[in-house]
Design brief:
alpha+beta, Nucleoporin_Nup155_C_2, four-stranded antiparallel beta sheet, structural constituent of nuclear pore, nucleus, five-stranded mixed beta sheet
Length: about 1250
């Protein structure tokens, strides 16, 4: 018998291990290939959406335009989600006061101005900066100061004059649209044969390099800039009348006034539609879509053909909620039309028409939103939109529902006379988040309707976007989205019909009843392993695959390397793109780890022992559960491996990929490093009747600013630079530029001699500047066009997508071109750095500029503040990148000691919070460190913690904080608690509000006692006042302590009244006695001899307190005050007219006054006789009736008639009183005349 040796056993074991490893590798490879198939399948399903061209039902190569907008399905409404909260105001940001103050300065005399200018020139020329010298010389020549220039003895002047000839030829203006005949014919003949029509708008399609223009009379022209954007060719022009005639051919019943005038044109880029190039918007809101000759194979323009007429809401059979009319401003981008309307007699509105909610539909359907605006805007721009990664691989991008996890919500900024209004457009996932908030969870009926309308697969994918975003601000929404994912995600299903089929594969994707034909290039494991029919995976499973496929979509079909030179390779995927995709995948991986219950149990029917009719179905169901479990396990493994690969590629990007690629690499490997073939893009989900515009910000402009502008300006204009998130204001020859959201980076330029007519911001041509000039500011006046530079620091902070770039306006004029009598009012730049301008003569001009050779900077030049700041920031960033916590603490100490607290709180390092907390404990609530700590919490979204620190700072006793600062701490704490994230602790907010109100009373008491200390001659009272001032500044007191220890002790009657109202203490005797003291103090302090003046001073005090308290406040007893004031008036022998007239001027209603005087007339009349004038009240009532007769038109008709009858009765009683007296004939006749006038009012009704 043969016995196996140890070596034979070892060899056999090694063979078995090798076979096992080989089988496991093959199984893993098969699973990965199946995951690739599944992801590609979802990408294909995600790409089955109708393009804009297909939705319009346009037939290619057929000269027949289509019409939409007249059917109820074109603008559906009344379906689901009607309870969604649609408008969320955030905050208000006023215009920086620095800009306002510059327009309030007085104009100096010529002599003072000349001396001031000479002083500034001398200071500038004393600087070693040669660039600054050149700027001064440019300014002196342009302002005619040549004599002063020649007197300068600076060596830099000779260098400047040598280069002057080169600079003068570096820029020129070329008319692109006028023919050579215009240069031959005289000017008066050109004026006779051409119609005066200036250019009103220029828009550029940078994806195709096509330029469109619109004139004031509606002439639309098309120009080809050639494929690389370096040429120019005029193609075709269509007048407004020609466009109207074309449209009427396809819609005979449409009226002409709905097709003109044309108010805006907008380019349609290739990423939105390959076969449409321009959309024209009319004043009625009608849109006209044109093709500029584009075909699927050729994207060069050749003509302009009307393809589709889209009617605005209001043309359907159903009665519309509203209809756009008098459209004045329009912005169109990526299928979203935003327009402002100003119908006659109706407040300004802003409209949004968007097809994003209906991406899956095959017809052209749009949602509509209409909001009321504060005022008529002057400018409408889009800012802040766009993906965080680069554009996707195909020419037409997929709908927003597919790419929304990579894009921020689009924002629209409207700038008008009342300031800036900012609106945000909600993404589909934002709508789901809003439904969670409104329903306080996922169990609401609106969330169920969302899943039904979008389909469970799509809705689960949207839930994953929210569930995987579990930051501190989104934790509640993330939990609700996770619950909705499991609540409505369902379970895998099997149909009894499938029980007759044979089962041939242990794994298959989600299967439809009719298998889809195999696409070209598709791969399958084998032809026999077809998906099992009627086997349906759960929506949770499909939603996960759908979301993962959307995350990987931007990189799935792209080559990750590209050849930049002979034998030189570089990555085609940026570090930001890889990091973004990797972070999303890691979030999904964490979601799967934290929610392991998503995997179905490995056995759902393992206890079956009895064979009956249901056994086969239960066995089949168990197989389906096992299939889904294996699929999800494989997906989890695939995500882990994808994160490893992307993490490796991120390391390559961080360490300068060209250097790594310069090592010897197999060329065959380089050729295969790519994704799969291109696929079509997806359809989105559908839901109806949801308003998608959310006002984010409203920035008011104070009316006094507008008034100042109207007094000093000859020409003013405002606008926005969406490229840099800045607003600009041009008044006369000055322009101001500022960050309208953060009120920072305020720049201005006033070096022009003429009024600014046109303003534009363009990117410069590549490699045109040696320095870091990133933008060109183009200013047009009547006499010249001036180009300035905008610089960005070389050491830019790392962009996060949310921060603002630091922009510096270089006030040196780079180029200056005379206008030759043609005013340029429209300025537009192309992506290639070309500058186009529209003239008032109707022609299109281009500004040609050459390479700018900047003057060398002296080696001894002291760095500018901007450069020094960038250098310091770079050193701080390097220090904080170290893991040494002690080094971090040293840096924080240095930053605090050097006043860099604003930069300090911007840091997001975890060590900063620990440092500030430790400093707080060591310094026993130091204001410096706690001030930084609350700012840190507020900056990073922890508003509740910030409010708690602020309240403690306000309530901590001590002499190092005054009362004004304590009140500011409370106000800031209340603002923190009112923020969107922290506004949930109602009791805490009420406590802060009460503290702030009491602090306001304490401030009033402090001011009154301070006034006593400064005016009194009593030494004891002065000492008491000084002690009270120290006590009030060192702590916050409650109302009882303020009333007893301060208001009563120092006889502060107005403060007592304020405390009574704040405490809600309704004691009529106390209130009346307090008022008597207030009136007596005013009488005692008045030194005038004229009784009318004395009474007027008392009434001014009453008026100020009336305005202070709300109408109807219990501390303002109107009947008591009228009686007291009339009694004072009678005692002073003042005019009986003053009291009632003053109350009417305050705004007290006639109804209240008539009732009060009616009650006074019923009292004992001896009071007035004892005061010195028995007829005082009768005459006062007469003046009241006379005042009513003069102002009765201000009172509503029903109340007017009622008061007239009451006054007639009151005058009758007064006359009956006078009949028993002597020497009153004149008064009687006066009252009868008034009674007659009031009788006529009664007759008028």
């Amino acid at each position: 018998m043969y016995t196996m040796s140890n070596s034979d056993i070892s060899i056999r074991n090694q063979s078995m291990d090798s076979s096992r490893v080989q089988m496991e590798s093959l199984e893993t490879a098969a699973k990965m290939l199946e995951k690739h198939m599944m992801l590609e399948k979802h990408m294909v399903l995600d790409s089955n959406y109708a393009s804009l061209y297909d939705k319009m039902r346009i037939r290619f190569n057929k000269n027949c335009a289509t019409v939409s907008g007249s059917s109820e399905l074109d603008y559906p409404r009344g379906a689901a989600f009607t309870n969604i909260k649609q408008l969320v105001p955030v905050n208000k940001v006023p215009i920086p006061p620095e800009i306002i103050e510059n327009f309030k300065t007085q104009v100096p005399s010529k002599l003072e101005a000349k001396a001031h200018i000479d002083h500034i020139i001398a200071q500038c020329l004393a600087s070693p900066d040669i660039l600054l010298h050149a700027s001064v010389y440019d300014w002196m020549i342009s302002n005619g100061l040549t004599d002063d220039l020649i007197e300068s003895s600076k060596p830099s002047l000779e260098k400047y004059l040598r280069d002057a000839s080169w600079f003068s030829a570096s820029c020129s203006k070329v008319c692109l649209t006028s023919s050579s005949l215009t240069y031959i014919l005289p000017t008066f003949i050109n004026a006779l044969i051409t119609q005066e029509d200036s250019l009103a708008q220029i828009c550029i399609d940078n994806s195709r390099n096509v330029l469109y223009t619109r004139s004031e009379l509606g002439l639309i022209s098309v120009y080809d800039l050639y494929e690389r954007g370096q040429g120019f060719r005029s193609l075709v022009s269509l007048s407004e009348e020609m466009i109207v005639q074309q449209a009427l051919k396809f819609h005979i019943t449409l009226q002409k006034n709905y097709l003109k005038p044309i108010v805006s044109i907008s380019a349609i880029e290739a990423r939105e539609c390959l076969l449409l190039g321009l959309v024209v918007t009319c004043e009625s809101g009608t849109r006209l879509y044109f093709n500029a000759g584009f075909t699927p194979k050729c994207q060069r323009p050749s003509t302009l053909t009307l393809m589709h007429v889209r009617l605005p809401p209001g043309f359907t059979g159903a009665l519309p909620l509203a209809r756009p009319d008098k459209v004045n401003l329009v912005h169109y981008s990526r299928g979203n039309l935003v327009m402002t309307t100003a119908p006659t007699g109706i407040q300004e509105s802003i409209w949004l028409l968007s097809s994003d909610p209906y991406a899956f539909h095959t017809s052209f359907m749009e949602s509509q939103t209409c909001l009321i605006m504060d005022s008529k805007p002057w400018v409408l721009e889009e800012v802040g939109s766009g993906a965080t990664t680069t554009a996707m691989c195909t020419k037409e991008e997929p709908p927003l529902v597919v790419r929304q996890h990579y894009e921020r919500p689009a924002k629209y900024v409207a700038l008008g006379p009342h300031g800036v209004e900012i609106y945000a457009k909600l993404r589909p996932v934002d709508l789901l988040a809003q439904l969670f908030k409104d329903g306080n969870g996922p169990e609401s009926q609106s969330v169920k309707q969302y899943f039904q309308a979008q389909s469970e697969d799509q809705a689960c994918a949207s839930c994953l976007i929210l569930a995987c975003n579990s930051n501190a601000q989104n934790i509640t929404i993330s939990e609700w989205a996770t619950r909705a994912f499991f609540l409505y995600g369902g379970e895998p299903k099997v149909s009894p019909a499938s029980l007759q089929d044979s089962y041939t594969s242990p794994f298959s994707p989600n299967v439809i009843s009719t298998p889809r034909p195999v696409q070209p290039g598709a791969t399958f494991l084998s032809t026999t392993q077809q998906p099992q029919q009627d086997t349906v995976f759960s929506a949770k499973h499909n939603g996960l695959y759908l979301y993962v496929s959307r995350i990987l979509r931007p990189l799935w079909t792209r080559r990750v390397v590209r050849e930049v030179g002979v034998g030189e390779l570089d990555t085609s995927v940026s570090l930001l793109e890889v990091s973004t995709v990797c972070s999303h995948l890691q979030a999904v991986s964490c979601f799967l780890e934290n929610n392991s219950s998503i995997l179905p149990p490995s056995s759902v029917v393992k206890d079956i022992t009895i064979v009956d009719d249901n056994t086969l179905y239960k066995t089949r169901l168990q197989e389906v559960y096992l299939m889904e479990r294996k699929s999800l396990e494989a997906l989890k493994q695939f995500i882990g491996q994808a994160c490893q690969i992307l993490g490796f590629w991120r390391i390559l990007c961080e360490h300068h990929f060209p250097n790594i690629a310069s090592f010897k690499i197999d060329q065959d490997y380089c050729a295969t490093v790519s994704g799969s073939s291109e696929l079509d893009y997806p359809r989105g989900a559908a839901f109806t009747n949801i308003k998608q515009l959310v006002p984010v910000n409203k920035v008011p402009i104070p009316p006094e600013i507008i008034e100042n502008f109207s007094l000093i300006q000859s020409h003013s204009s405002m606008g926005l630079f969406p490229e840099i998130n800045r607003a600009w204001l041009a008044v006369d020859n000055q322009i101001y530029i500022w960050d309208y959201e953060h009120r920072t980076d305020i720049s201005f330029f006033d070096g022009l001699n003429n009024t600014i007519i046109g303003v534009g911001l363009v990117k410069p041509k590549p490699n045109i500047f040696k320095s870091n000039v990133k933008y060109l500011l183009v200013l047009s006046t009547i006499m010249e066009v001036v180009i300035l530079g905008m610089m960005v620091p070389e050491h830019e902070p790392e962009s996060t997508g949310e921060g603002q770039e630091e922009i510096q306006l270089v006030k040196k004029v780079l180029y200056s071109i005379p206008t030759d009598g043609v005013t340029m009012s429209v300025i537009k730049g192309s992506s290639m750095g070309r500058i186009f301008m529209g003239g008032t003569d109707g022609n299109l001009y281009e500004i040609k500029y050459q390479r700018y050779c900047e003057l060398p900077i002296a080696e001894t030049q002291v760095p500018s503040k901007l450069e020094a700041k960038a250098h310091i920031d770079h050193i701080i960033a390097q220090c904080l990148a170290s893991p040494d916590i002690l080094l971090h603490a040293s840096v924080y100490d240095w930053m605090i000691s050097n006043g860099l607290t604003d930069d300090l709180i911007e840091s997001s390092k975890p060590s900063l919070e620990k440092y500030l907390v430790r400093c707080q404990s060591l310094s026993q609530f130091s204001l410096d460190h706690n001030g930084l700590l609350w700012k840190y919490h507020e900056r990073h979204g922890n508003h509740a913690a910030a409010a708690d620190i602020l309240m403690k700072m306000a309530k901590t006793p001590g002499n190092n904080v005054e009362l004004q600062e304590r009140a500011e701490f409370l106000a800031k704490a209340l603002m923190c608690m009112r923020s969107q994230e922290a506004g949930v602790m109602g009791h805490y907010m009420h406590e802060l509000q009460d503290l702030l109100q009491v602090a306001g009373v304490q401030k009033a008491i402090l001011a009154a006692i301070t006034d006593i200390a400064n005016t009194t001659d009593n030494p004891e009272l002065q000492v008491s006042a000084q002690h009270a001032i120290m006590s009030l500044n060192s702590n916050l007191y409650d109302v009882t302590e303020l009333f007893t220890n301060y208001a009563e002790e120092f006889e502060l009657w107005e403060c007592k009244l304020h405390i009574i109202e704040l405490a809600g203490y309704r004691d009529d005797h106390l209130i009346q006695s307090t008022w008597q003291k207030i009136l007596q103090v005013e009488l005692d302090s008045c030194t005038a001899e004229d009784p009318n003046i004395v009474l007027g001073i008392v009434m001014d005090k009453v008026s100020s307190l009336y305005n202070k308290y709300e109408t109807g406040s219990f501390v303002f007893p109107m009947d008591f005050l009228v009686y007291q004031l009339e009694y004072i008036s009678c005692s002073l022998r003042a005019s009986p007219e003053i009291v009632q007239k003053s109350f009417v001027s305050m705004g007290v209603p006639f109804k209240s006054l008539v009732t009060i005087y009616e009650d006074l007339s019923k009292r004992n009349s001896d009071t007035w006789a004892q005061s010195g004038d028995p007829l005082h009240l009768v005459i006062a009532i007469g003046y009241l009736a006379e005042n009513f007769a003069r102002r009765h038109q201000e009172i509503p008709s029903p109340l007017r008639k009622q008061l007239a009858f009451k006054l007639q009765d009151l005058l009758t009683n007064c006359l009956s009183t006078l009949y028993s007296k002597t020497n009153v004939d004149q008064v009687v006749q006066w009252l009868k005349d008034i009674q007659r006038d009031i009788g006529e009012i009664c007759m008028q009704g």
